[in-house]
């Protein structure tokens, strides 16, 4: 990273952002000089969150649950253990709970107090998940929130909202579209969106 | 604390607006802030609960008007300053001006990356068996501490049912204030929508929280 690139950036930033960026850089220099952090390790953290985690991990887990009834049961019994046993998927920690959508019940996940989210399964949360409109309304008017996402559910479907107020994390297991019979896990994973695993969306319609 | 961060059930914030193809970070500095906060947690400087309390403690008008990572930056700065790990004069100067504070686990280096790439465990040995069992009717206590708590206002004093017992975990209300792990049982407690929001509520709505045992009492 050359200083040149940074300078170039500065010219295009506007006042408030530049001010914040300068303060952030100052803090990083202070933390580095004090020996609290190594900047190369900070680079690696940024790279980790930009490239190593994301909703594909969750989609692979859901696709497997759709095609393997024993895995699905293990996932619902103890998601951390079931995903840990896969080995190749993101290292998920100890407190993940998978919740299953059915024709009778639709699950939706929120954190009203901050932004708790299953990073290892879905990556960093989108801005809307961390922002006031979603955090305030999901627990009171989830159907209104779903309407913002263009989703309408039958009026008799139970809506279950999980407020992530502790270190437990939730992964929604969406319903498999009927038109996907015989599909491979890889092909199924393509239609499993991030939002369908938060509960604010549904899997992409199969052709 | 009864802060503006405790948003469940508030009105007037408008529709949820999703950004298509949103990047992990919108500005370079956002990634640096996230990395610094994660590193200062992993090196033993600032635990997750104290980080949350620092964000909740931002003035309400700042909390509401600041972007997500701006809140992180303002809060971590306040925390580092109040713990005498960094001085405001040092941030103004852009350089360290005095000796550093000792860290539990030393400098965060490349060798420590594995500590942030796997989620830590919050489970701890219980001090006692769980007081409640599956299916028990419970009521959330009407507590209003000025300190950190994870019991949202919108459920306080309401009746629900124990649906899951999720283990015994670090108690944020203690850990945020450097009072140790004080492990407590965590339960999923489910409430009927009408119990929380009255007769006009969506009759198909059920809401659950993850409740630490000290938040609950028998109805």
Describe this structure in words.
The complex is a heterodimer of chains A (207) and B (219). Chain A has helices spanning 3-12, 15-33, 39-52, 55-67, 69-77, 79-86, 119-122, 127-130, 132-137, 142-148, 185-189, 194-198; strands at residues 96-100, 105-110, 158-163, 169-173. Chain A is mainly α. Chain A has two domains: 3-51, no CATH class; 54-198, Alpha-Beta Complex (Nitrile Hydratase, Chain A). In chain A, helix 4 crosses helix 5 (69-77) and helix 5 (69-77) packs across helix 6 (79-86). By secondary structure, chain B is an alpha+beta fold. Chain B folds into two domains: 28-117, Cyclin A, domain 1 (Orthogonal Bundle), CATH 1.10.472; 137-217, SH3 type barrels. In chain B, 30% of the residues lie in helices and 16% in strands. Chain B is built from eight helices and five strands. At the A-B interface, helix 2, helix 3, helix 8, helix 9 and helix 10 of A face helix 1, helix 4, helix 5, helix 6 and strand 2 of B.
Order of helices and strands of chain B: HHHHHHEEHEHEE
Query: Sheet bearing the most strands of chain A, described?
Result: 2 strands, parallel
> What is the CATH class designation of the largest domain in chain A?
Alpha Beta
CATH topology of the largest domain in chain B: Cyclin A, domain 1
Helical content class of chain A: 40-55%
